[in-house]
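Take a look at the protein record below and flag anything odd:
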Amino acid sequence: MDPGAPSLWLDEAPATRLRALDTGTHAFDAVVVGLGITGVVAALELAEAGLSVLGIDAHGLGWGASARSGGFLLVEHAIEYPARRARFGADRMRTIIEMARSTHALVESRFAKAAEHKRCGSLILPMDDDAEEQQTLAEAARLLAEDGVPCTTGVERDDLRGFAPGMSIPEDGEVHPGKLLAAVGAEAAAAGATLRQALATEIHPKQRLITTPHATISYGVAIIAVNAWTRRLLPDVDIEPQRAQMLATRPVAPVRTLEPVCYGCWGYDYFRQRDDGRMLVGGRRHRHRDDESTEESTTTRPVQDDLERYLERHLSAFGPFEIEARWSGTMGFSPDELPFWHALCDYEDNPSTHVLGGMTGHGMGLGAVCGQTIARSTHCELSDTERRRLDLLDAKRLR
């Protein structure tokens, strides 16, 4: 798996790199494969429970998607909410909201300073020429308020061009995803977890064995959290890779003038300004669907050109721009656009291998609590809230 060029976040957080796993045979109580936000939080939970834990990743902490994302922490993707609520029902969507809030609370309570966390709020902006999107966002505001998410409608900004009045959600926030992954990894290591670079090539759930090119690992329980690359290890698990591309400008002002993290065009496009004035823009995937349905982590000229045009059309008030960095990451999409969990049994019919993925672009907001919940389900009695999460994640719903 080629990780592609590092992101701006990875460049600024070199602690995401890992030492190679020693050759030979290894045995651990628990093994986590894939150390994005989902896997590394699972490793932290298992290590703090007193288990011997090995976490492996093909490259480093967050190198697949987590530390290549925009770094948004959202209570829910608002423009999608009416359709998701109609499909899954209010009760399940309230569980999703609870899970997103729990992830945000975990980050805020334990890693806020290290991860440059800020509750800056979000701003969702429909396009000024799309009446359907404007109507959908108005319906989303009504339903979110009904389900306990405070929001404000009719928000306008003169420095953002081509948008109709938007909706803000004050409790949303942002992080530096590279530094967040490094901080969680450091906590997991301090709790006793061994985190190493290694490419898992085969998983044998019946024997509870994982092989790499140079090592064999036996385990009591395993959590497979490689998301977009799940099919390489378990071909029958239905997770589709989707590439997402971003760019960053050089600082365009000495201070930050755009406070909230922003979404536009049905949530396909997203942008934020950092405190040093850098503008980060991602998206445009919907204009290149066939090319972006891939696990190849490279940038492409057509999408990057579209992102530059987006800057000039919608964010020109913050320019002029000079591009400093370009990168991509690979997301994993589930069949119904919610993450799922599937347990595989060993020869004694014990559910010992737990596959978790299909974050569908929501990994930064949901991944931590998903990883934590599945990890806890392997070693302790769950609370009622955690059982509701597990019930929602259960892959049986896909049948």
Notes: The radius of gyration is 20 Å. The domain at 8-68+178-239+337-398 is CATH 3.50.50.60 (FAD/NAD(P)-binding domain). The chain has two domains: 8-68+178-239+337-398, 118-172+243-331. The chain has a mean pLDDT of 95.
